[in-house]
Design goal:
By secondary structure, the chain is α/β, with parallel strands linked by helices. The chain is built from eleven helices and 14 strands. Helix content is about 35%, strand content about 15%. The structure holds phosphoenolpyruvate and manganese (II) ion.
Length: about 350
């Protein structure tokens, strides 16, 4: 249930509605909006009786919310959310490009890749200081040393940085050095981590789990919003299927659907989605054509020598080509506008 307050309703009226929701045994969550104040009723198992709430001073109307997730849904928040990281807005009209190596590497190589992806059109730099690897014997990331290198990327190149938090105990430390905290596919349902990142209120890039349904992915995002963090970016990165011709199956059919169900930005990571560098560019184009708000890709100045995920890492020239593809696609988009309805 969403209680919509009248324009100009007072703080006292909002407080009284929240108090009444508590008296009914539920938890009120104020939803800030540009044009209205709303209070979401959470914690109910079935329909909420609205008769009393409807008659309270300042209440315009009560709208039942039919989905199990509330704060991430368009029912509660009809306008697109634009998440800000430094000077970059993710979720607006023009696509956001996040590029960089899978892992943070030596300082000089990492700074070189950052300089080159920025010149090629990247808005945000990516690289993992802590890596969740399938094998315990594989490179696990440079850890704290990597975080210091990411800080240098921000300082020297003015690029906001996204990096993964693999464990809640590392959340504060990673948040000190980077702009966006990534929750990896393997951690999408690590609820302790989600709660922690919800409390920190820093932008979070939430990757879809390897076998997560759309509803499970949105419920994971709901954890972050329910803790008071509205700065959530979703990222499709491929799911596990029976196919053995690619690392994962990039599920682009989730993109237009996710955009109708949630107001949060939806990005696509074609690198992990396909796992092979020669197919990243066509899938990048397809992702944008499907309505993604941007792309996250693994890019390196010498991809064969990347510390991790070399097979799917593209070179700078290919990244540059993708940025050009995107500008051609956005010119075409005005012709396709009716097909990209988001509500
Ligand atoms: C990554 O972005 O390098 C990564 C580990 O991604 P995912 O969690 O999608 O596998
Ligand atoms: Mn990777």
């Amino acid at each position: 249930m969403l209680v919509i307050m009248r324009k100009g309703s007072t703080d006292e009226e909002c407080d009284a509605v929240e108090e009444q929701i508590r008296r009914m045994g539920y938890a009120p969550l104020p939803v800030p909006g540009e044009n209205r104040t709303a209070i979401c009723v959470t914690g109910n198992k079935g329909p909420v009786e609205a008769t009393f709430l409807n008659q309270m001073p300042g209440v315009l109307e009560c709208i039942p919310v039919t989905k199990p997730y509330k704060l991430v849904s368009r029912e509660v928040h009809p306008e697109d959310t634009v998440v800000r990281a430094g000077s970059v807005g993710i979720g607006g009209d023009s696509p956001t490009f996040i590029a960089g190596p899978c892992s943070v590497e030596t300082e000089s190589r990492t700074l070189e890749v950052a300089r080159r992806v920025k010149a090629a059109g990247a808005h945000i730099f990516r690289a993992g200081a802590y890596k969740p690897r399938t094998s315990p014997y594989a490179f696990q990331g440079l850890g704290e040393e990597g975080l210091h290198t990411l800080r240098l990327v921000r300082e020297e190149h003015g690029l906001p940085v996204v990096s993964e938090v693999i464990d809640s105990s590392l959340a504060e430390k990673v948040a000190e050095h980077v702009d966006i905290l990534q929750v990896g596919a393997r951690n999408m349902q690590n609820f302790a981590l989600l709660k922690k990142l919800g409390e920190l209120k820093r932008p979070v890039l939430l990757k879809r789990g390897i076998s997560a349904t759309l509803e499970e992915w949105l419920m994971a995002a709901e954890y972050l919003l329910a803790e008071g963090n509205p700065n959530v970016i979703l990222c499709e990165r491929g799911v596990r299927t029976f196919n053995n011709h690619s690392r994962n199956t990039l599920d682009l059919n989730v993109v237009p659907l996710a955009r109708t169900m949630t107001h949060l930005p939806v990005l696509v990571d074609p690198s992990h989605g396909v796992g092979k560098r020669d197919r990243v560019r066509p899938l990048a184009r397809a992702s944008l054509a499907a309505g993604a708000h941007g792309l996250m890709m693994e890019v390196h100045s010498n991809p064969d020598t990347a510390y991790s995920d070399a097979a799917q890492t593209i070179d700078i020239e290919t990244f540059e080509g993708i940025v050009k593809d995107a500008s051609i696609l956005s010119q075409l988009e005005s012709l396709f506008e009716p097909a990209l309805a988001t509500d």
